[in-house]
Amino acid sequence: MFGKLTTTLTAIGLSALLLAAPALAGPIVIKFSHVVAENTPKGQMANKFRDLVKERLGDKVLVEVYPNSQLFGDNKVLEAMLLGDVQMAAPSLSKFSRYTRKLQLYDLPFLFENMDAVDRFQHGPYGQKLLQSVSSKGLIGLGYLHNGLKQLSASKPLRVPADARGLKFRIMSSDVLAAQFKALGATPLKKPFSEVFTLLQTRAIDGQENTWSNIYSKKFYEVQPYITESNHGLLDYMVVTSAEFWNGLPADVRSGLESALREAIAFGNQVAADKAKSDKQKIIDSRRSEIIELTPAERAQWVEVMKPVWKQFEGEIGKELIDAAYGANQAGK
Ligand code: LMR
């Protein structure tokens, strides 16, 4: 009888082990959530990362990419990350204000003259330090990813700042961007990316600011008859994860993920550079939207009206940081 009990217990133990085995042996799942289309710098970077991880880490890690706000929209993804519902994301730097005020730097209008200056700043000590600006909130900045410089689209031609007066513009959830549009005498509305097309189509808003690739891939150009090539601000991302998840990974997996991410980001940045030209050209070819090029004198007016926003945020961001970022333009000359 004792023998029989032992056999039964062994059998129970074995079946419990067998049941648990798939869970123990299964891959580490990384849900990567983002809001843009797959055919964008971020969409391409995320897919490249997924593929490289599969190639290099085999069955150990499975990256699942959820594009187009399928899993989480802008305003929820970082909360979800801290709860463990998603492991990676790359929100725009404009969407971190609940976690740090320092990243507001990147929203200052006319801060960077081109993407080379952005690279110089981000590779330098100040840019690198900013990646850790969210660490006290339980997040780890793994790297920057580019999209590009933003343009202004609207239901009417915008040549000088006065043309924007009284119009409603959708903005990302950033107080700097709100101040920028208020400086124009316009009304800023903080809305998730997933709502922008409908807001434009129904004329609930008059305009928005975004990069060529977002304007193209989300078809904003089909419902905005004018796009001003203003290059007035930056849309850049921070690839983030939660400290709890990242620090709990085996060291070899972590370093494999880091190298795959480095390569995926380099690829995404190349896609960004290419799309800033090719998606702009596709919009021109579509003839749905007229592209307005500013004369130097017109551009100077936008700078004059928007740049005072810097002073408003100098206290929160820090003058040293602003000087270092602006100085990156000079370093290339
Ligand atoms: C936006 O909300 O306009 C952008 O941040 C979308 C994105 O992630 O590129």
- Poorly predicted regions: 5-23
Shape: globular
The distinct bound ligands, ions and cofactors come out as: (2S)-2-hydroxybutanedioic acid
CATH fold descriptor? D-Maltodextrin-Binding Protein, domain 2
Q: Main sheet?
A: 9 strands, mixed
Number of strands: 9
Alpha-beta classification: alpha/beta
Q: What is the number of helical segments per DSSP (H or I, 4+ residues)?
A: 13
Structurally, the number of domains stands at: 1
- Share of residues in strands: 15-25%
Radius of gyration: 23 Å
CATH superfamily: Bacterial extracellular solute-binding protein, family 7
* CATH-derived architecture: 3-Layer(aba) Sandwich
Span between termini: 89 Å
What does this structure look like?
The chain is α/β, with parallel strands linked by helices and 333 residues long. The protein has a single domain, classed as Bacterial extracellular solute-binding protein, family 7 (D-Maltodextrin-Binding Protein, domain 2, 3-Layer(aba) Sandwich), CATH 3.40.190.170. 47% of the residues lie in helices and 19% in strands. The longest helix is centred in the C-terminal third of the chain and has 36 residues.
For the structure shown, list the relevant keywords.
47% helix; nine-stranded mixed β-sheet; single chain; 333 residues; binds (2S)-2-hydroxybutanedioic acid; alpha/beta; D-Maltodextrin-Binding Protein, domain 2
Blueprint (SSEs and pairs):
Layout: H1 2-25, E1 28-33, H2 41-57, E2 61-66, H3 77-82, E3 88-89, H4 115-123, H5 125-130, E4 139-154, E5 168-171, H6 175-183, E6 187-190, H7 196-201, E7 207-210, H8 212-217, E8 226-242, H9 243-247, H10 251-286, E9 290-293, H11 296-306, H12 309-317, H13 319-331
Parallel strand pairs: 1-2, 1-3, 5-6, 5-7, 8-9
Antiparallel strand pairs: 3-8, 4-7, 4-8
Helix pairs in contact: 2-10, 4-13
Bound molecules: (2S)-2-hydroxybutanedioic acid.
